[in-house]
Amino acid sequence: MAPAAVIVNGHGKEEVEGFSSRKLNPQDDVHFDPSLAPPRYQIKGTDANSKILFENVNILDCTGAKPYTGSVYIEGERIKHVGEVPNIESIKKLPGLKVIPGNGRTLMSGLGDAHVHFSWNNGDLNGLGGIGIEEHVLMTAAAAKTYLDSASAKERLDCVIRDAINNGSIPGPRYLANGKEMARRDGELVPGITAFADGPLEMREVIRHHVKLGVDQIKLSMSGEAITESVSLPKKRSLRVLMRVIDMASDYVPTPDASILHFSSEKPILTAVVARDSILWSIKYGVDIIYHASYIDEEGMDLLEKRKNKHIVAPGLNWLYGTLYEAEAFGYSNSKAESVGYKKELEVAIRGLREMHKRGITILPGGDYGFAWTPHGTYARDLEHFVKLLEFTPMEAIISATAGVAKLFMREDELGVVKEGYFADLILVDGNPLEDITVLQEHDKLDVIMINGKIHKLKESSKATVEPTMALAQETTLTNYIAYKKDGKFRIGHLDQGSSLITPLSLASGSPVRNLYQVIEAGADSLIAGGEKVRLETVELQPPLSERDVLAIGRNYAAHSTEFNKSGYDASSKDDQPTHPVVFTKRATSIVASGSEILPLDHFTQTLDYEGEIGVIVGKSGFRIDESNAMDHVWGYTIINDVTARERQRDHKQFFIGKSADTFCPMGPIAVPKERLPKKLQVQTFINGEKRQDGDTDDLIFPISKLIATLSEANTIRCGDVIATGTPAGVGFGLDPPTFLKPGDLVEVKVTGLGTLTNRVAALDAHNYVTAQLNDTHLETYNLDISCGGVGLRQINNNKLLNVTESGVDTGEQIVYVHGLGGTSEYWQPLISTLQLDNSYKNVMFDLEGHGLSPTHAGSIVTIDSYASELSSISTKPSVLVAHSMGCLVALAFTLAHPELVTKLILVGPPPNPLPQAASENSIKRAAAVREKGMLHSGVAAAVSNAGTSKNTKASKPLALSAVRQFLLSQDPEGYAKGCTALAGATERIDLSKLKMPVLIVTGQEDGVCPPANAEAYKGKIQDCKVVVLEGVGHWHVTEDTDGVAAAVKAFL
């Protein structure tokens, strides 16, 4: 397992006392690309109401300032006051306050480590790959706790443990997770814990895989390791891999291959390098964190100094020291360590690291912990080595392990120092580490360990007036449901109203929750946190529910009913109090989210008014519901502003027209289950900060149970229906004089436990955004879900989306590939890999409309010419064009229309020209069959794979046959059917004599679509044409005989 950066937890003087040329906080000069920032993981479980006071402590704030005596006061997760605590005597009287007497002990930031392996077992690394996953998880969790007490060999172990710590399930430090180390096949430390990659293509796939697992950073092992006797200069292919990966990271532009480039622009890259050239290449190609860096030479040192604002070095010093002097007890002798070069490496490393330190290069502790002689729990030894071997002052060593590691997390604004507003990650030390740095290695001297404002360890002598507080996190109830849109996708999350952070929610299965209907159906117990938190201001807020008209109640508060009756706007009744509920509806198009503008619609009304209301959300459908059990049908509540055009309400003698205008039903911001709210709810409305309305559910004329019974008396109410329960007195027409809303007015409706619904009245010239947002199409887009709604697809002519993939060398000659009916762009990957075409060509592949990852709209008519039009938008410069099966017809249509863009043409298994009538009719029948029964049960996948492959393939190449079947079974039935109809239309002869470029035709001896005679017929009509026939091959040539096709293509190119 590659090491993880950890922190239990600058600023400061510009120069070190006695070292006038050296900065005390060199990490302040490091400026990583902001796009590399890892997620700001939060550790759950700290009571927001927690209050802890450290008194009379020696504050070592880790900024470089001299320690001073004072107090530190903590509220919840963060430090509130440092030094002098205002009103300290009043604070001491607060209920629940925990006071820890410092008695002069040192209070400092928790220590961090840049290079530790939680998933390594303090023993034989060769056995890690064979440890059962269950046992390995427990072992890794124990190592994480050991780290916390002190201050991955499987792909997902680090990620699982990181997430468990952050969820409060297990104790542990703040943590950035890696996956396996990545190395070439003869450069690994231990095979069982290494992910292998021998070239850029393989590296891309390995990195993609690890990004999907959720790692925070990527580690490349470049130089081997002396203990495996594999340390060496980096081989050229290792350097090519490094160059390729870093190029992708630093030269990111949106391209069809965005899955790799997008990853590379967001994950820090680390290298484990010992050899001189490896170090130099890591610096030249922008590696963010360089581990070991033992054999750096003058050229590398000068370059590193020049670029010290971009790099951090974590040398693994304790590994070298321990291997040389302390490994003998574990069977690795000192003489052996010397003979393989550890003594020399340690000496060279010390000289190099001292020089780096003098030049202001940021060096962080990270002793490669997790080996037998660098066991978990001894992490602070690095600080002793920094002082005794590298000539750090104790203050410099401490800063490197606190503020320095905070820089590695890119969270120096909230971690690593003892400062107001920072996270309370602290240790209380019985001793002075500035006088004796080794005191930090003595666990019994660490009297208090705190992370995230929660006490993990509390030594008996420190308790005094303190209650023990270390317990697993209390479960956070994720029931403040908020609907939002981010990156084009609708989600439901939990809104923390204090921090304005949204936790995306998923079902327990992991499926994202997309709307509140799903929440109601699944129930709160079936929902879990489903992703990283996002800030409220970064999303597009949606109303909790918006697909149906709102069922609304008028005149349901006594005082409002009276004021309405006297206003002159009530045309419904002359009585002050209604005898039956007054029911109307608000059209679904009137519903907008909190934060959206209310359109003034001055052509429609001059009496724009507000009505703050409590919205009831129905949780269970019903008909003729008895009032006695009506509340069983209530799921929860939200806030509604029943905006009204008063003169329209009056003139039309009913409420619908005056209350259903666009934007006249703001709703939200959240919806909350009734179990999470008090029985009595208060509703208040404020206009520009002035309170206008104030009422509660006890004031309702008709209670909610009566409303549900009335509404369901002859109508079925449905789960997800919303009932607006009426508004209290204080609306605009009830004021003296009547005061209506005008552009710029801010309307805020507050309800107990539901937050504040906030909307501003728009300017008079505001456009109607409701109309613009409507999606009135009912024509389906097929095959869109497979790309999560089109993520990563390229938009071409007429807004069509296609999956386009590019690889190889941008400056090389371009090759464009067109797959056939039932295939995808992946059909060509074996050919590209076998010929290593990425090393010298730019390769462009795409999925035809409806195939692979490319969607197709129901109204889109697909033909050979429409496919060729897709190709025209992709291939815009002279290229080699390679096509298979039906793709050959597409390539020919494109070539005849744009001969200047095709330098060479390779046709693999081209169909007859023209397509015989019987074949055309059969293709139409095949389209109808897959539309009716799909690819499997129509028999099409089986029939095509059996007929399209040779006897030899079926008899002795089961993987090839299975690959063909998988191509077919993975197709969207509608996309495949459209391809069949496109092929069926290819009944006109193509004039092959117009082809002037060199042409290669490859077919199989048993190809039923393009038998050798068909290939020869093509050759007879083409000026410069060569035919290659592959023995024992059917129609799926690349899948059945990659080497044969590769040989023919190589000779032709």
Verbal overview:
The structure is a single chain. The chain has 1053 residues and is of the alpha/beta class. 49% of the residues are buried. α2 packs across α3, α5 crosses α6 and α21 packs across α31. The longest helix is centred in the last third of the chain and has 21 residues. Strands 2, 3, 4, 5, 6, 15, 16 and 17 form an eight-stranded mixed sheet that branches. The chain has a seven-stranded mixed sheet with strand order 41-43-42-45-46-47-48, with helices on both faces. It has 31 helices and 48 strands. β18 and β19 form a beta hairpin.
Total strands: 48
Backbone shape: flat
Residue share in β-strands: 15-25%
Oligomerization: single chain
Number of helices: 31
Structural class: alpha/beta
Low-confidence runs of at least 5 consecutive residues: 1-20, 125-129, 146-154, 224-266, 464-475
Profile the largest sheet.
8 strands, mixed
Q: Whole-Å distance between the termini?
A: 43 Å
Helix content, binned percent: 25-40%
User: Over the alpha carbons, how many angstroms does the gyration radius reach?
Assistant: 35 Å
Question: Average pLDDT, to the nearest integer?
Answer: 85
Quick rundown:
The chain has 31 helices and 48 strands.
Architecture blueprint of SSEs:
Layout: E1 4-7, E2 51-60, E3 68-75, E4 78-83, H1 88-92, E5 98-101, E6 106-109, E7 112-116, H2 133-150, H3 157-166, E8 174-176, E9 181-183, E10 194-196, H4 200-213, E11 218-221, H5 236-250, H6 258-264, E12 269-273, H7 276-284, E13 289-292, H8 298-306, E14 312-314, H9 317-325, H10 334-339, H11 342-358, H12 381-388, H13 394-401, H14 403-409, E15 426-429, E16 446-451, E17 454-458, E18 481-486, E19 489-496, E20 501-507, H15 516-522, E21 527-529, E22 534-535, E23 540-542, E24 550-554, H16 558-567, E25 582-586, E26 591-593, E27 608-609, E28 612-618, E29 634-641, E30 644-645, H17 646-651, H18 656-659, E31 665-667, E32 672-673, E33 682-687, E34 690-696, H19 704-711, E35 722-724, E36 746-751, E37 755-760, H20 769-773, E38 781-782, E39 794-795, E40 801-802, E41 804-808, E42 813-818, H21 829-835, E43 841-846, E44 856-857, H22 864-874, E45 879-884, H23 886-897, E46 902-908, H24 917-937, H25 940-948, H26 951-956, H27 958-969, H28 973-984, E47 999-1004, H29 1012-1021, E48 1025-1030, H30 1037-1040, H31 1042-1052
Parallel strand pairs: 2-5, 2-6, 9-10, 11-12, 12-13, 13-14, 24-35, 26-31, 42-43, 42-45, 45-46, 46-47, 47-48
Antiparallel strand pairs: 1-7, 1-8, 2-3, 3-4, 6-15, 15-16, 16-17, 18-19, 18-23, 19-20, 20-21, 20-22, 24-25, 27-30, 28-29, 28-35, 29-32, 33-34, 33-36, 36-37, 38-44, 39-40, 41-43
Helix pairs in contact: 2-3, 5-6, 7-8, 9-11, 12-13, 13-14, 21-31, 22-23, 24-28, 25-27
